[in-house]
UniProtKB/TrEMBL annotation:
<feature type="active site" description="Proton acceptor">
    <location>
        <position position="81"/>
    </location>
</feature>
<feature type="binding site">
    <location>
        <position position="84"/>
    </location>
    <ligand>
        <name>substrate</name>
    </ligand>
</feature>
<feature type="binding site">
    <location>
        <position position="50"/>
    </location>
    <ligand>
        <name>substrate</name>
    </ligand>
</feature>
<comment type="subunit">
    <text>Homodimer.</text>
</comment>
<feature type="binding site">
    <location>
        <position position="38"/>
    </location>
    <ligand>
        <name>substrate</name>
    </ligand>
</feature>
<feature type="binding site">
    <location>
        <position position="221"/>
    </location>
    <ligand>
        <name>Mg(2+)</name>
    </ligand>
</feature>
<dbReference type="GO" id="GO:0045547">
    <property type="term" value="F:ditrans,polycis-polyprenyl diphosphate synthase [(2E,6E)-farnesyl diphosphate specific] activity"/>
</dbReference>
<protein>
    <recommendedName>
        <fullName>Isoprenyl transferase</fullName>
        <ecNumber>2.5.1.-</ecNumber>
    </recommendedName>
</protein>
<dbReference type="GO" id="GO:0016094">
    <property type="term" value="P:polyprenol biosynthetic process"/>
</dbReference>
<keyword id="KW-0479">Metal-binding</keyword>
<dbReference type="GO" id="GO:0005886">
    <property type="term" value="C:plasma membrane"/>
</dbReference>
<dbReference type="GO" id="GO:0033850">
    <property type="term" value="F:Z-farnesyl diphosphate synthase activity"/>
</dbReference>
<dbReference type="InterPro" id="IPR036424">
    <property type="entry name" value="UPP_synth-like_sf"/>
</dbReference>
<dbReference type="Pfam" id="PF01255">
    <property type="entry name" value="Prenyltransf"/>
</dbReference>
<feature type="binding site">
    <location>
        <position position="202"/>
    </location>
    <ligand>
        <name>substrate</name>
    </ligand>
</feature>
<comment type="function">
    <text>Catalyzes the condensation of isopentenyl diphosphate (IPP) with allylic pyrophosphates generating different type of terpenoids.</text>
</comment>
<comment type="similarity">
    <text>Belongs to the UPP synthase family. Z-FPP synthase subfamily.</text>
</comment>
Amino acid sequence: MRLPRVMYSFYEHRLARTLSQEELPHHVGVLVDGNRRWARQFGTSTEEGHRAGARKIVEFLRWCNELDIQVVTLYVLSTENLNRPPEELTALLEIITNLTRQLQEEGICRMQAVGALATLPPELQAQLAGSVQRTAENPGPHLNIAVGYGGRQEIVDAVREVFTDAASRGESLEATAQALSIEDVSAHLYTRGQPDPDLLIRTSGEQRLSGFLMWQSAYSEFYFCEALWPDFRRVDFLRALRDYARRQRRFGG
């Protein structure tokens, strides 16, 4: 049993050495999918599946820190997830709250909550706000933790802000509509001021974005992995990075 582990470690180390810093993506987004299926696969509770997924998030951010990935966006809770059965949603929100506490204690990232935060329970809102403040000076990647997030809602909120800001300056809505630009919308997204994601990864074998970073992913590279999120290994991440490094990005060309 020891030999395969040694060979596996050797392969992982060799794979990591093939990646140069210049080839790595600056911003990686991940749809952390498969917690519930993982739980069913092992005959355990959905809650334990989400806990396993939270543990993997901490591990994943350590990998990103080691590889010097600058920005990470994790799709943790969608607006649709807020309609889960009450007992599952209550447990999931508690797990997310504890996750933000652990990441704060780990000190390996700077956190920013992105999403329709007003729809979240007050305790989670307070925890997210506190973690954002307390991790502001941390080293490591900038972490966008997408909670209560929906890509369509983000675009609606951005356009609404554009018009609200214009109205506050006494500008007519008609003139604002005529002058509305891509840059105007980008400047009001949840991730405003950040680079768009270079690479989006989805685990669990599903090959769709489910509304994740709809505006920002126009020119992103996509990588779909069969592994359920709690089973996602460092070698799976390295393979995704290797695949990204081999692609020729066209940016619409």
